[in-house]
Write a structure and sequence with these properties.
Layout lengths: L1 H9 L20 E6 L18 E2 L2 E2 H18 L3 E4 L9 H11 L3 E5 L13 E5 L5 H14 L7 E6 L11 E5 L6 H7 L2 H18 L2 H60 L5 H18 L1
Parallel strand pairs: 1-4, 1-5, 5-8, 6-7
Antiparallel strand pairs: 2-3, 6-8
Helix pairs in contact: 1-7, 2-6, 4-6
Bound molecules: zinc ion.
């Protein structure tokens, strides 16, 4: 019985070793900077600069560009891209400060969003992409191709790409200024007021970015893979904790059962001792003598 108790105690499963080291590395996200062109409204302070961009009626370029930036940011977030905006509200920001914000973000691609205008001829229309230097040409072409694809069903003419060296002179990453349509063209102004057309612009720019740098999709896959590994490890750790809890409970019960068994054995020994030693040998000896005496007599 004592042996059984010892076996019960020693056979309890021991707690597992601490969780293994992380088997994954979370990659740093791909960073893209977006510049919503223009910004800021007139205030009572005459020293405060403001820049609405193109204004047609009560429609202002600065509002369209900010909305386009938010739509593009939402699409890029689904690609696990970290998006940095040069402004997130109705704010006047100098071009040099905008570039400082882009540069500080560590962005690998940069687009500046605008809408076009042509004074004197409302018939002028179409989408144009500007690029500052030859090293941004292929990026501009990719954005242009993406836009041409998503704006085709709106019959937006593709005016292609054009060099504009005075824009973003300090840029050292692929840079493109997107002019998806003319606010001075009544048909395109009408489209630019529609949410689905703005979504199509954002989608076209996104497609261009994905085509320009396959790294965007690769980093996305790495992040998804690392997140899956992290989730699996978390599940394993939760399982280990539950095992450890079960083991602790089993050990407690093992100790209680063992103690009961030991107590029972000790009590049995004590009861046997109290009953005293048996007197059988004396009785038997007497009977034996008697039997011998009888046999001698016969
Ligand atoms: Zn503009």
């Amino acid at each position: 019985m004592l042996a059984a108790g010892v076996v019960l105690l020693t056979s309890m499963p021991t707690a597992r070793a601490a969780a293994a080291e992380p088997s994954f590395v979370m990659p740093s996200p791909y960073v893209i900077a977006i510049d919503p062109g223009h910004g800021g409204s007139a205030t009572n302070d005459p020293t405060q600069l403001w820049d609405p961009g193109v204004v047609v009626g009560n429609v202002m370029e600065k509002d369209i560009t900010l909305d386009l930036a938010f739509r593009l940011r939402a699409l890029l977030a689904k690609e696990r891209v970290k998006v940095v905006l040069t402004r997130t509200g109705d704010e006047y920001v100098e071009i040099s400060e905008r570039w400082n914000r882009v540069h500080a973000s560590g962005a690998r691609l940069f687009v500046s969003l605008h809408v076009n205008a042509f004074n004197g001829d409302p018939a002028i229309n179409g989408a144009t992409i500007f690029y500052p230097k030859p090293d941004s040409l292929s990026f501009a072409q990719a954005i242009d191709a993406g836009l041409a694809q998503t704006l085709k069903r709106y019959q937006i003419a593709d005016d292609g790409v054009a060099a504009k060296p005075e824009l973003w002179v300090r840029s050292d990453v692929p840079t493109a200024t997107v002019e998806p349509g003319y606010l001075s063209n009544p048909r395109e102004a009408g489209l630019l007021s529609q949410g689905d057309f703005r979504d199509a612009i954002a989608m076209g720019v996104l497609q261009g970015m994905l085509a320009a740098d396959p790294q965007i999709e690769q980093v996305k896959l790495q992040i998804i893979h690392a997140e899956a590994a992290a989730a699996a490890q978390h599940q394993a750790e939760v399982g280990t904790t539950a095992d450890a809890a079960r083991t602790a409970t089993a050990t407690r019960w093992g100790l209680i059962l063992g103690a009961i068994v030991v107590l029972w054995v000790v009590m049995r020994i004590a009861i046997r001792r109290q009953a005293g030693a048996p007197h059988l040998p004396q009785y038997r000896r007497r009977g034996y003598r008697r039997r011998r005496a009888v046999s001698r007599r016969s």
